Amino acid sequence: MAQRILEYATLSCVTSTGETRLYLIRHGETSRRGFCNGHLDEPLTPNGITEIEAVAQRLPRVEFTALYASDLGRAIQSADILGRVLNIRPIISPPLREKCFGEWEGLPQAEIQRRFPGEWEEWVVNPADAKPTGGETCREMAARVLPVIEQIIKRHLGEKVAIVAHGGVNRVILCHALGLDLRYMERIAQRHAALNIIEFVDEAVTVQLMNG
Questions:
Q1: Is 29 left (phi over 0), alpha (psi -120 to 50) or beta?
Q2: CA 12 distance to own-chain centroid
Q3: What pLDDT, in 10s, does the model give residues 23-66?
Q4: Cβ burial 139-177 (10 Å sphere, 16+ → b, else e)
Q5: What gap in Å lies between CA 147 and CA 193, rounded to an integer?
Q6: How many CA atoms lie within 13 A of 145 on its CB side?
Q7: What sign does the CA torsion over 72, 91, 207, 142 have?
Q8: Which residues pair with 165 in a beta bridge?
Q9: What is the pTM of this model?
């Protein structure tokens, strides 16, 4: 088993100035070319815009000090919608982008299974360590995502911060908050525009809301 990239117990130890809350949001619905978009840059659909606007209307009374977003267009577009409602400018963070699925991106599932049968079987059995041709594993994704989350928490102790990212990125963060190995990440649902809330108080880490 690969070594855990980041222990959230370590993160919680730095939050000594009251309650720190991360509002972790998945981008709104996009067009999907195949099994996954990964690093392909698809804009939000009209329904995706509506989904994010609905999330924004749930948050206007929350006093956010920062709003971070992945550098992929669907996340930036979602963050811009949120930022207009919350009156805060998004900070773009490239390490928060979705997992790279390499040559799988844009392909239908049946085509992936035909062209990469061994890789698909590994993905089904153990998504944490499966590595599509030309792509990255989820553990490699975690290696770039989790240090950024640690930096954000340290920078915003005792504050409320919103992060707009992706299904895979959110699952990585939630797995670590819950103490789950990444091989179980696909058991966590993340619909489009899902809202998750993670709270850090002293040494305690609590997932207050998931896939809301």
A1: beta
A2: 19
A3: 999 999 998 778 889 999 889 999 999 999 999 999 988 999 99
A4: bbbbbbbbebbbebbeebeebbbbbbbbbbbbbbbbbbb
A5: 24
A6: 32
A7: positive
A8: 26
A9: 0.90
